[in-house]
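Weekly structure sync, notes
Attendees: PL (lead), two postdocs, one rotation student
Agenda item 3: pending single-chain targets
PL asked that the sequence for the first pending target be pasted directly into the notes so everyone works from the same version. It is reproduced below exactly as submitted, 257 residues in total.
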Amino acid sequence: MITTLKRYLFSGVKPHYKDETNRRIMVVNLFAAVGMSITFILGIRALLAHEFSLSILLLLSCVIFAISHQLQVKVQTVAARTASITLLLTCLMGLTLLLIISGGKDNTGPLWIYLVPPVTMFFAGFIKGLLALLGYVFVAALLLFVFDETLLMASYSYAFKTRLLYSFLTVSFLSAFYEYSRQKSYETALYLSDQFERQAKHDHLTQLLNRRGAQQCLEREYARMLRSKTPFSLQLPILIGLRALMIPMVTSKVMKY
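Predicted structure, written out during the meeting:
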């Protein structure tokens, strides 16, 4: 059981992908599994309660969650991963808006909208996520205050509708602030990692590859030669090499005198 869950969670993860990409793939797998489970259980429950419209809505959402998972696993491209995330977010936003319209079970459907801000910010990023949430709030406000008498199947009080939007905006602000801080921390960590890697592979004085960097470069080119089955040549800059050797000798003499 644990092996199956682990295989599902890591499906689509590749060693040559960036850590951020693999993390997003794993979260999509996890969120799709949770979404499928919840919508399937609630859909079957609504079906048994003879709430056929709600049941069809929930079971259709379950299928869309499954498609979004399979899309990034079967078609392992950047476009497929983007389409998978877009499909997942569209399904989540559409489902929660339809729950506002229908009211769900005992008018508790609108409570599910608080899932939207953190999920949208994580998958879409700060700028795109913020724009998506503003559009979502605009549509939700139209449903609650403009087309409430024509589209809403449930009845909500004015106080409930206003507090629902106010609290949603608060959660959206906190999610946006967290995502912005997370992105800045991640960019800083990447910058420091690149700097440390460069310092480890380059000579500080000449800015040329040191022994470690040259060894990795040679191994990479040798592996490429084996794959392409074509020879390659190696050029050594003798003057630069002699200069690099002479510098520590001159420095030691200066320190001696």
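Discussion points:
- The two ends are 73 Å apart (CA to CA).
- The chain has two domains: 2-198, 211-256.
Action: rotation student to compare against the earlier draft before next sync.
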